[in-house]
Design a protein that fits this description.
The complex is a heterodimer of chains A (331) and B (325). Chain A is mostly helical and 331 residues long. Chain A has one domain: ABC transporter involved in vitamin B12 uptake, BtuC (Orthogonal Bundle). Chain A contains 15 helices and two strands. In chain A, helix 6 runs antiparallel to helix 7. Chain A is globular and about 75 Å long. Chain B has 325 residues and is mainly α. Chain B has one domain: ABC transporter involved in vitamin B12 uptake, BtuC (Orthogonal Bundle), CATH 1.10.3470. In chain B, 76% of the residues lie in helices and 1% in strands. In chain B, helix 1 runs parallel beside helix 12, helix 2 packs antiparallel against helix 10 and helix 2 packs across helix 11. The longest helix of chain B has 33 residues. Classes of the chains: A mainly alpha (331), B mainly alpha (325).
């Protein structure tokens, strides 16, 4: 009876040697973040101030919230270019509700439900009809923002209630804004979802090989549909925050955010081809983008020039490991 | 197979004819040859850009930086013209082509040599090129009064009753038609899109072809830079902001598959014309121009639904042919 071998322990994930942790993408991002932080504090005397640093967080919290859901979506091999348009449509709907006399809780609900609905619409088109998500969401991007333009034209909605202002302008404690708290909570939730649940494993499986995942019993279509809904939901939440922060709605609100969100995700080490990435990387990338834009802002660099740095950062951070590997391999 | 491809474009052409018919019930003068010529002229730049984007999409890549390239190159030629009005326009167009080529080659090199996915590369250069426009101009605008009369007048001059801008579009269409149907490069571009691995075994240098494709889209972006600035007679950082998605929309409506390998010159031209007709028709039939975005969005979704059905059917046809053989 004793010759039955004990069941061999198969680890859930392999132990990583310290070396791979040091040379990981996240480590590179930490180095970049620290470097930019140091440069910023040397370049401007106003940088190292709790209130400045608090203002800094507004540069990335809204986009970062969407970036978490987008990271999962990109890991699964899809993409959503309509997130900024969802913000515009949800914000417009909230503006209409204000005109109709809706109160604060209804406004928040409308923002979130519209976001979720738009995400579900994208998800249905991609999963039910089997269409490429990049094209579908280019279409829905025009459609959603187009509806906002039809409703608003060159007008703007104003007159949001005072209690609504808390979401985008309120502070939970001292200099810690509500947006930052929400960002950190979302980071933990998405980290847990992606790295600690079977749902997260399925997302990776789909991104690496959708056909194999399907044959392994993963409901590929349904998982992707949920991811599109999540992205829509986060866009709806971001819309509540932005509308609350600006206190007005124009159809051109959040223009160009989709590319910044995707830049954030890719900078965070998520493979644009799907199948790889981590939430920690996205959090770090969000911080880096916030640091760059805010630090340059303190130096009175115009926004359009900052975008050069963001673009260069994106290409250099992606190219660096490839060049490095090639140089080492070339010896 | 060939009949099927023709079928798709004829289908799109029919949709355009129906569209023009519907518009002319509300506004009869729209279908006048003179007005249609005007619509063609208005759409020329979009057609040229869509052709440049098409060759990129056919190789399973994407160029998101075309509108920024257009903006940057447009600013270069506008500032050159403002500073040295004596530079002849053909030389200026040559400069625009070279500047565009360089910007495209940067994209191409990053895609070819470093193997970075094109969507990431061009997402980066999209912001870089537009930012660079701000840096070179210092945020200033170049207005009509600083541009020479030749600069503005060149594309408006009529040749055989048609403006030069339309002639340039026709020339580009013909060149692309020859490229895609009569040259080895054209065949390689299709081959890479259909099956990159098989293309390598067939002796096609996939990376180098992608590099060339980005050079082509860069040159097209540069050429459009001059055409755009001299048409709308203002050069600023905001020129063609967000236009990259219109270009892709024209391709998608034209039946070019984002998965590569499927698409034609005729499709890209008709897709651009479709969008051009809508934007020209809305004001004359008294629909607020604010409707345009939602309409073109719906058109894209509809087009991609129809394209997907077409592609699926095509697969079955191949199977049936194999079974019959």
């Amino acid at each position: 009876m004793t010759d039955i071998p004990a069941p061999r322990h198969i680890p859930d994930r392999l132990d990583k040697p310290l070396r791979s942790a040091i040379f990981s993408w996240e480590a590179l991002l930490v180095v970049v973040a620290v470097a930019i932080f140091a440069i910023n504090s040397l370049a401007s005397p106003y940088f190292l101030d709790p209130y400045s640093l608090s203002d800094l967080t507004f540069n990335f919290t809204e986009k970062g919230l969407i970036a978490f859901a987008m990271a999962l979506l990109i890991i699964s091999g899809e993409i959503d270019l309509s997130v900024a348009a969802i913000i515009a449509l949800a914000s417009t709907m909230m503006g209409m509700a204000v005109q109709a006399g809706a109160g604060m809780p209804v406004l928040v609900l409308i923002g979130i439900v519209v976001g979720l609905g738009c995400g579900a619409f994208n998800g249905l088109l991609v999963t039910r009809l089997g269409l490429p998500s990049i094209v579908v969401t280019i279409g829905t991007m025009s459609l959603f923002r187009g509806i906002a333009f039809i409703i608003l034209g060159d007008q703007a909605y104003k007159g949001y209630p005072d209690s609504f202002a808390f979401f985008g302008q309120g502070y939970v404690w001292w200099v810690v804004s509500f947006e930052l708290v929400l960002f950190l909570i979302a980071a933990v939730v998405y980290w847990f979802l992606l790295h600690r649940t079977s749902f997260g494993r399925r997302v990776f499986a789909i991104g690496n090989n959708p056909v194999a995942a399907q044959f392994s019993g993963v409901r590929v279509g349904r998982t992707k549909f949920i991811l599109f809904c999540l992205t829509g939901l986060m866009s709806g939440i971001a819309s509540v925050l932005i509308t609350s922060r600006l206190g007005s709605t124009r159809p051109s609100i959040a223009q160009g955010y989709e590319l910044e969100v995707i830049t954030m995700v890719v900078l965070g080490g998520v493979s644009i081809l799907g199948g790889a990435g981590s939430i920690l990387g996205v959090v770090l990338a969000a911080f880096i983008m916030g640091l760059v834009t805010f630090g340059l802002g303190l130096l009175n660099v115009p926004g359009i020039v900052m975008s050069i740095f963001i673009g260069l950062l994106l290409i250099i951070v992606i190219a660096l490991p490839i060049v490095w590997r090639r140089l080492r391999g070339g010896r | 197979m060939k009949a099927f491809f023709k079928y798709r474009e004829i289908w799109l052409l029919a949709a355009i004819v129906v569209l023009i018919g519907l518009i002319s019930t509300r506004f009869p003068a729209f279908a006048d040859p003179g007005n249609l010529r005007q619509v063609f002229n208005d759409t020329s730049i979009l057609m040229i850009l869509a052709l440049g984007q098409m060759v990129v999409i056919l190789t399973r890549s994407i160029d998101l930086s075309m509108a920024s390239n257009l903006c940057f190159t447009g600013m270069v030629v506008a500032m050159l013209n403002a500073a040295h009005p004596a530079i002849p326009i053909p030389l200026l167009i040559g400069i625009a082509l070279v500047v565009g080529l360089v910007l495209g080659a940067i994209n191409g090199l990053l895609v070819w040599r470093l193997n970075i996915p094109s969507i990431v590369v061009t997402l980066g250069t999209l912001t870089i090129y537009r930012g660079a426009t701000f840096v070179q101009s210092g945020g200033a605008w170049v207005n009509a009064d600083k541009m020479s009369s030749d600069f503005i007048g060149f594309q408006r001059a009529a040749f055989l009753g048609i403006p030069v801008l339309s002639w340039i579009a026709i020339l580009v269409i013909v060149l692309f038609f020859v490229l895609m149907t009569r040259t080895a490069l054209g065949r390689s571009i299709y081959a890479i899109g259909v099956n990159p691995t098989a293309s390598v075994y067939a002796g096609i240098d996939v990376g180098r072809t992608k590099f060339i494709v980005f050079c082509i889209s860069g040159m097209i972006g540069g050429l459009s830079g001059y055409l755009w600035i001299s048409r709308y007679v203002i050069a600023s950082v905001e020129v063609a902001n967000g236009y990259e998605l219109n270009i892709i929309a024209a391709c998608v409506i034209g039946g070019i598959s984002i998965a590569g390998g499927i698409g034609s010159v005729g499709g890209a031209v008709l897709g651009a014309l479709f969008l051009g007709i809508i934007s020209n028709a809305l004001p004359v039939i008294n629909i607020s121009p604010f409707w345009q975005m939602a309409i073109s969005g719906s058109a894209i979704i509809l087009a991609v639904v129809l394209n997907a059905r077409g592609e699926r059917r095509q697969g079955r046809i191949i199977l049936r042919k194999v079974e019959a053989a």
